[in-house]
Design a protein that fits this description.
12-stranded mixed β-sheet, single chain, alpha+beta, 9 helices, 336 residues, 2 domains, Aminopeptidase, 33% helix
Length: 336
């Protein structure tokens, strides 16, 4: 099938018909990955798309047939640091295996390669049509497995959360620091940025670079979160003797998807582990969630299947995998 590939800057800039088409295709994919998944409204889809800011770079494109129908869309994104790019693509179920995905994927990969990226990563649900395609494409190699984990907020035992919180309060030499975005001071923002560097020790794909931020970049991300109509709760732990922030945990709450919360980064510096600090921070956010956001039914997070320490905490909170995605990496050079 011949299609025309058209780039677009933001979903909010699309016409109503095209926006409805790409959101329908997006919802169809998620309904396959997670049976019974609640579809996003066009407004919620636009909000999700808005949450991107430097140092992340993102290019978007859609595939259109000769009669004007949008049959696929996708994006490719990367950070400023040297490394690869990640490609995500959604094809109308009725137009799969018709070379639509091949054309769109090639165009998106070219955008990453022309920007100087070293390779492309794709996240593929096992036994899907995309899984068959990537296995038949020369040069891709399996990297790691990601779990899409969710927990039912109403089933988390409050006694467990209170125990984790009380154990954290009792941990000698540590104190809690918290704020809701935007961060009130640049100094505190800088401390959280430094604490976030621990996330570079978490398992990541071969082509995924280490992440760094400046205060200015964090402010851009905060502005993107505001544009996306989502709240962003941040909790950190300070080591009192040194004054350093040694851990952080975050929770995102989109206004136009009120049934879902998103667990972001959680990490503790290696030299301060073993004191229950990660559980303490998560407990604080989950207790607040139960008290202040009764409409939130689920919390979602992503974990590498090899990240056993974080999975252990999440399993205790009732997180279970609703889908798994294999990450495949293909270097751009040398080409096979």
């Amino acid at each position: 099938m011949h299609v025309t590939i058209e780039r677009f800057a933001w979903a909010s800039e699309l016409g109503a018909r095209d926006l409805a088409a790409i959101n329908r295709i997006h919802n169809a994919a998620w309904a396959e990955w997670v049976p019974g998944e609640r579809p996003l409204s066009d407004t919620a889809f636009v909000d999700m798309d808005r949450f991107s800011a430097p140092p992340e770079r993102m290019e978007r494109a859609l595939a259109r047939t000769a009669d004007g129908e949008v049959v696929a869309w996708g994006l490719v994104f990367w950070r400023d640091e040297p490394g690869g790019c990640t490609l995500r693509m959604f094809v109308d179920p009725e137009r799969r295996r018709s070379d639509v995905g091949t054309a769109l994927g090639a165009a998106l990969a070219e955008l990453g390669q022309s920007a100087g990226r070293t390779g492309v990563m794709v996240e593929i649900a096992p036994d899907s049509a995309a899984d068959v395609a990537v296995r038949s494409t020369a040069g891709f190699r399996s990297d790691l497995t990601l779990e899409l984990n969710r927990t039912a907020v109403g089933k988390i035992e409050r006694d467990l959360l209170e125990r984790w919180r009380d154990d954290g309060v009792a941990a000698e030499g540590y104190s809690l620091v918290a704020y809701d975005a935007p961060c009130p001071t640049d100094d505190l923002a800088s401390e959280f940025i430094q604490a976030r560097e621990v996330m570079n020790e978490a398992p990541r794909s071969e082509g995924e670079p280490e992440s760094t931020y400046t205060v200015e970049e964090l402010r851009d991300v905060e502005a993107a979160g505001t544009a996306a109509h989502q709240d962003w709760w941040n909790v950190g732990v300070r080591h009192d003797a040194s004054g350093e922030l040694v851990g952080l945990s975050e929770l995102y709450l989109p206004v136009n998807r009120p049934w879902m919360g998103f667990q972001g980064d959680t990490g503790v510096r290696p030299d301060h582990r073993g004191h229950g600090l990660g559980a303490w921070m998560k407990a604080v956010n989950h207790l607040r969630l139960a008290d202040e956001r009764p409409d939130v039914e689920w919390v979602q997070t992503w974990n590498a299947s090899s990240n056993e320490p974080m999975l252990r905490i999440n399993r205790a909170l009732g997180f279970e995998p609703v889908q798994r995605f294999d990450v495949w990496y293909r270097p751009f050079s040398p080409l096979p």
